[in-house]
Sequence to fold (667 residues):
Amino acid sequence: MSETLRPFERQINLLGALLKARQGLTWAEISRVAGYNDARPERSRQKRFERDLHELKREGLVVSREVIDGARSLYTLDRTACLMPPLNLRPEQRHLLFRIGMAYLSDHGAGPLADHLRSALLKVQAGAGREGLPAVVPPALMRRSLQRRPGESAHFEAIVMAMLARRIVRFDYSPPRDRAQRRTVAPYGLVTRRGGWYLVGLDENRRAVRVFRLSRIRGEVAVDIPGYDGPQYEIPSDFDEERHFTTAPFGAGENAFADVRIRFDADVAFIVRNEFEGQYPITELPGGAVELQLPGAYPGELLRYLCEFAGHWKILEPAQLRSLVLKRLRGAARAARKGGA
Amino acid sequence: MTRLGQIVPLLNFLAANQGVTLRDTARATGLQPQEICAMLDALTLCGLPPYAPHDYIGYRLLGRGDDAVIDLQYARHFARPLAFTPEETLALKYAMEHFARAADETSLAELQELAGVLANALQGRARQILSGRSGGFVVPRQTRRMRALIGTLSEAIDGRWVVNLEYYSAHRGRLGTRRVCPFQIIEAGAYLYLYAWCELAGATRHFRLERIRAAELTDTRHARRPPARRQAGRMAGIFEGRPRDQLVVRFSPEAGPDVCDEWTNNPDTTLRMLAGGAVELTLPLYNPQWAAGFVLSFGEHARIISPQWLRAEVIQAARAGIAAHR
Fold:
C-alpha cells in the first residue's frame, strides 16, 4: 500500500510523526511510517524520505539531523522555529485581519498572492479558536484588488511569484523609441499609477535600481536560474519604492511639466478636494472654484483625467502646457469633424 | 503552492477548533464546503504507526448541509499551527500595506497596531519581513477626505443603512442626489467604486468614490441583497445593462502604443493593428460622456470611426474646454 501513497500523503505522515515525536525520530522509526515502510530496498526508501524532508523544509520547517551512538541519525523538528508563537491578538484585531483577507480573496483580488494569503489567515485563525471568527460574517465591506490592466496580468503574476520567493527574473524590455533589450532584475516592489503597474528592482547588469513598465515587457518573464528554488536576493530593509518611482497621479519624471496650476470651477471643486486635499496645495477661489498646484505632470496622463469633465477647468501655468492642451482640444475637434471611414 | 501547503493549515485550523461547522470553516478559509470535504477526503490514507484504526486521520460530518459540525479525529498533533512561511508572511504584509492605503482612519490606526503586535510576536525571518519598509505593492494613498468617506460608507454597508448621496454624474455632467442601498466598496483598475442599489435607476449602479460630494446615513435600514452574480471583467463589472452602441476609434502611430498598453486583453474589446503603426480600438459604449472625454484626451491622435453621433459630443466637449481658457 505504501508505494501507492501520493507524495503529499507521505509528507503529511512524516510531518505528523515529527510533530508527535518530541524527542526526534531515528530512521528505524521513520521506516515504519506509511510511505517509507514498503518492500523496496532501504536505500530507495531513504532517498524518498530525503526528498520529502526537502519538501518539508521548503514549507518552512526546520528539521535538524544529529548523529547519535556514533552511527544513527536522529531527526528532530525545531518546534520553536516551526510552530507559530502565540500571537496575542485581540478578537477585533483578528476580525480586522479576517476582513482584509476577505477583501482580497473574494473575486480573485489577491491574484497570485491568494494561496499564501489564505493559508496565512488560516494559521492566524487556527490559533484563535471559534471566537476568532465574527458571529455573523458580513460579505466583505470592501473588495480590494491588485489586478490592473488585463494585458499586464501574465507578467504581473510571474513577477509577484518571483518577488515572493525572492527570485531574479529575466525578460525582454522595449523602452520607448528603442529596441527590446534583455534585462535581469531582482524584483523589489511594484508601484501603480493611474491604472498600470511598474516594476521597481535591482537591474543586475547596471547594478542600480531601475523602473520597468509592465506593459513594455515583451514575451515571457522567466526566473533567472530555472530549477534553483532558494531565495536569490534580499530587499534592503530601508528600501522605499516611492523614492525610485512616484505614485504622484500624473507623474513627476524629467519630461513632465513642472509647477502645474489648474483652476477648477465650483461644480467639480469637491472632486479635486476628494482626490488631492492634503497631498497638493489647493487654494480656494471666489465662487467656490479652486486652484490645484501639482509639482509635475505628464500632459497625456493629466489630460486623460481632465477630459472626463471638459469645460470645468483651465490650465493656468505653465503657459507651454496650456498651449499644448489647447492644441490637443482643437486637434480633437478637427479630427471629430473629419470623422473616420 | 504545494498540496501540503494547502492542506496543513486546514488541518491546523480544524484540529485547533474541534466542533467548528462546515459553514464557519468555509468562512475562515474562503474555500467552498465541497472543497474542504475534498481536501479532508484526501487524508484518508494518512496516519501514524502502528496504524491501528485510531491512528488514521479521519473526519465525520455531524449534522446536515453546511451547518454540519466537522469532527476531525486523531489529528491532535496538528493543533498548533505551523509558523508562517516567508511567502505567507509577505502575502499578509503586502495585503495589509495595500489595504492601509485606502483604509479609513479607525481601520488605519488598528492596522498599525496590528502590524506592531504581529512583528513582535513573530520570530526570525517572519519578523524581519514584517518589519521591512518595502510595501511590495504600492498604490497612491487616498486622501483623508476619501478615507473618511470610506469609513462612512463602510458603516452604512455593515449596518445596512440606506444612504443619501450627493453625486457628480458623468452621464449628466452635473451634481444630483441619489438614495442608495450600499452593498460593497470595490476597487477596479485605478478607481474605487460604491456598488449599490440606486432607487433612481431602479437597478444596481457603481458610483466612483471621488465623485461623491456627501454621503449621509438615513435612519432607515434596507433588506436588499446584491444580485447573486456580478459579471467579472473591467467594463462588464462596472457598467450595467446593455451597451448603448459600439465605439470604434482609430489612433495614430504616436498614440497606438499607449492604447495597446491599456486595452490589450480587455474583455469585449478588440485591437486591430493597422499599417504604419496605427491602431483601431473597438469596445462597447456604455457612457457617452466617458467616451467623449477618452477620445478628446488624445487630441488629433484619435478619430472616431463609429458611432457618428459621438463626434458631436467630442466637438462640444472640445469647445467647452477651449471656451474655459478664454
Remarks:
- Chain A touches chain B through 151 residues (CB under 8 Å).
- Chain A has a mean pLDDT of 86.
- Residues 319-338 of chain A form the longest helix (20 residues).
